[in-house]
Structures are given as C-alpha cells and as structure tokens.
Amino acid sequence: MFTIAKLSFKETLYKKIFLIAVLMTLAFLAFFGVASHYASKDLAENFNFAGMDVGQTLLQKTFMSVQILSIGLFFANFITMLLTILSTVGSVSGEIESHQIDTILARPIKRRDVIFGKFIGLGGLMTLYSLFIFLGVLLMNTLFGGSLVMHFEASQVIKGSLIFMVMPLLVTAIGLWLSTRLTTINGGIIMIVMYGIGFIGGFMEQFGTMFQNQALSNIGILSSLAFPVDSLFRRMTVQLFDVADNPISFASQGLFGSVSEPSNIMLFYTLLYGVLMLLFAVRKFSKRDV
Fold first, then answer.
1. Closest CA relative to residue 206, chosen from 182, 230, 178
2. Suppose 100 and one of 5, 95, 229, 290 were both cysteines; which one would form an S-S bond, judging by CB atoms 3.0 to 4.6 Å apart?
3. pLDDT digit string, tens, across residues 51-71
C-alpha cells in the first residue's frame, strides 16, 4: 500500500500539470499581493471616513480586509479543488484505459491496497499543496496588505488550515470512487459540476437564512449534503476569522461569510461521506474486471 502511495505521490509530483499548477500558484500569490497593496493604498488615499465614528470606521476597514482576504482564500480553494479533481479522477480509469494497471495487478498486491495507496499518495500531496497556498495567501496579506492586514492568533491559523486541508482529502476520496466507475472525462465533468453546485448552493443557503427564505435554505442544505465542500470552506472562514459567536459575522464577512456556522454534526457527516466514498471505491475496484 505504501509503495503505491509513494508511486502515486511521485508520479503526480513530476507531472507537467503539477509543475504548471505550482507556477500559476506563484503567479496568483504575486497578483494577490499586488492587488492587496493597491487596495490598501487606495483606501488610505481616497476613502472618506469623515462623518463616521470610531465604530463605523473600524467596521468598514474590517469589512474590506475580510472581503479581500476571503476572495484570496476562495480562489486558493478553487485552484486546490480543480488540481485535486484533475489529479484523482483519472488515477484509476486512466491506468485501466492505458493498461498500466496490468503491471500493478500482476504483482501480489491487493486491490484495496491500490486504492488506499493512491488515496494516501494523492491525498497527501494535495494536502501539502493546500497548506502551501493557504499560508501563501495569509503571507501575502501580511506583507502587502498595509492597513488591510488581518491579525490572527496562532490557534486561528491552525484551525483554519486544518479544515482547509481536509477539503482536498474529501475530493480525493470522491475522485477515486468516480475513477473506478467512469471514464476520466465523464468523472471529471461530474466532479466539476458538483463542485459548482455545492458552492452556488452554499450562497443560496446564506441568502435564504439571511432573508428567511426557506426554499433557498433547503436548496443550500441539499447541495451541501450532495457535495459538502462548501460547508467545510465556510467552517474554515468562521474558525479563521473567529466569528463563531459574533452576531454581525455575516456583515463583516460578506458573501463568503456564514450566517450560521456549519455544525459539528455537519463535520461528522462530511467525514463519514469521505470514508464511504473511499470504501465504495475499494468495493467497486475489487469487483471490476480490468
């Protein structure tokens, strides 16, 4: 199993797509740093705080700071999810189509170890990548954010980064399951569409809760149950910005915030969801005629 994990880790690491992703990630971080710098500069030179009391001024600055950082984290998560999908969805189906899997199965290796090994290898690499881009966004905000810099306690960063790193593990498990059942293209299309539905549903749920529209809330809940990545992202923002008990959390976080923090039950459901996807992948691959 660990041999497969090592092979999967190295194989993905040395792929051109991963190198391109790393280079584009550095370009994204540089862009985010430049954008943060000029946003802070524009705020200092042009924004008129006249007529506002101290509380209103602080709220305005906090809102802008959180919005800019949230946009950076949202796009960082998007890049991570897209790279995870592209790396995992063809990890089994691609090898079956090219018959590379034959050389692996010809050895005394159990099929379940192949899936578990790929999960450890791919999931481990994507987890490290997600930590890199998460800390990179925070670093750019610290270095170039100026008056919009967000100051965090170590515990906030640790909690936020841990939840951020769980997301690629969940997507890896789902990607492996689809990869044992479908072709690479079909599995990739389903994953990307489900990812989009999950986030749009998350926005719907926030609007539904804020405006007390039960239909929108129900749509969001169903989308979270179908693909619970958005719930993890919003739980991450709550933990990072430490607004779990803040009644104006949505006002300070805006569209990327959460009116109601995803519960521990939702986190347990997400964990169970990922485990079941992985077990389904093992079951399907064990019975599949390749």
1. 230
2. 95
3. 666 666 777 777 788 888 888
Alpha carbon distance, N-terminus to C-terminus of the chain:
19
Q: What is the DSSP string of 106-152?
A: TSS--HHHHHHHHHHHHHHHHHHHHHHHHHHHHHHHHHH-GGG----
3-class DSSP assignment, residue 270? helix
CA 138 to chain centre: 15
Rounded CA-CA distance 238/262 in Å is: 9
Confidence of residue 198 (pLDDT cuts 50, 70, 90): confident
Give CA 11 to chain center in angstroms: 22
DSSP assigned state of 256: G
Single-letter code of the amino acid located at 198: G
CB 223 within 8 A of CB 197: yes
Nearest to 132 by CA among 70, 76, 69, 72: 76
The more confident residue out of 278 and 145 is 278
Helix, strand, or coil (residue 95): helix
Q: Is 251 exposed, middle or buried (0-12, 13-18, 19+ CB in 10 A)?
A: middle
Q: At what angle do helices 154-181 and 184-210 cross, to 10 degrees?
A: 140
Q: What single string gives the DSSP state of each residue in 221-235?
A: HHHHHHSTHHHHHHH
Residue 223's pLDDT is what? 84
Write the Ramachandran bin of 149: left for phi over 0, alpha for psi from -120 to 50, otherwise beta. beta
Residue 140 burial by Cβ neighbours in a 10 Å radius (0-12, 13-18, 19+): buried
